[in-house]
């Protein structure tokens, strides 16, 4: 079996990446050695665009029918994901939603599966398991009060429509800077952030691990 973690963060070793790695550790723990392969894919390491509306994926009897035809760094990734047993998506939240890099990814990931037949059935045959891990600077109360969930749910809606209802994990009030004294930041203090992180982030890591362990 194969499970992939898609890191939609520009940071390769910070909050989102750490939680994705914990989730993959949980996946591996759930099976005997060698039964499952895992890989984290960092989107910001790749050169690609969103959908270009070439519609090659919709050409009747075309060689790219049902799959993206754009030959860039994302092409081999999409080939891998087509046969995945599970995918865990991770993203920091920018302006109440997932990063632009992850949004461009999912345009390319979802659209080839969509058809213009009556009722818009999809071409998906592999109903893989999915999950979403979100990291954000705001508290849970702020997330719910300011409409963050409505924006994030759009991504989850498409995942459920194409593959499966995703499990979700939210990491709130995350630590952003290595040295807060270097930045203009008056809304909270480094001490407040550090105190919260010391208490909460180990719990978030454990939740990510459990999410992965129960994914398949």
UniProtKB/TrEMBL annotation:
One of its Pfam families is FMN_red
Q: Which InterPro entries match?
A: Flavoprotein-like_sf, FMN_Rdtase-like_dom, ISF_SsuE-like
Annotated NADPH-dependent FMN reductase-like domain ranges read 1-119
**Record keywords:** Flavoprotein, FMN
Report the domain of life of the source organism: Bacteria
PANTHER family this protein is in? IRON-SULFUR FLAVOPROTEIN, NAD(P)H-DEPENDENT FMN-CONTAINING OXIDOREDUCTASE YWQN-RELATED
What protein is this chain from?
Answer: Flavodoxin family protein
């Amino acid at each position: 079996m194969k499970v992939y973690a898609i890191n939609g963060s520009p940071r390769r070793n910070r909050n989102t990446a750490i939680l994705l790695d914990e989730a993959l550790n949980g996946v591996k723990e759930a099976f005997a050695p060698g039964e499952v392969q895992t890989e984290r894919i960092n989107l910001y390491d790749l050169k690609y665009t969103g959908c270009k509306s070439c519609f090659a994926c919709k050409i009747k009897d075309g060689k790219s029918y049902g799959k993206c035809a754009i030959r860039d760094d994302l092409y081999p990734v999409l080939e891998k994901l087509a046969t995945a047993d599970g995918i865990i998506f991770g993203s920091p939240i920018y302006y109440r939603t997932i990063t632009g890099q992850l949004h461009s990814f999912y345009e390319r990931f979802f659209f080839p599966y969509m058809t213009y037949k009556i009722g818009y059935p999809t071409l998906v045959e592999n109903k893989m398991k999915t999950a979403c891990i979100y990291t954000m600077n705001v508290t849970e109360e702020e997330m719910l009060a300011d409409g963050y969930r409505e924006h994030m749910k759009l991504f989850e809606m498409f995942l459920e429509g194409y593959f499966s209802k995703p499990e979700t994990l939210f990491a709130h009030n995350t630590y952003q800077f290595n040295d807060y004294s270097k930045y203009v930041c008056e809304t909270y203090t480094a001490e407040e952030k550090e105190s919260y992180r010391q208490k909460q982030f180990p719990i978030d890591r454990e939740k990510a691990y459990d999410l992965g362990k129960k994914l398949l």
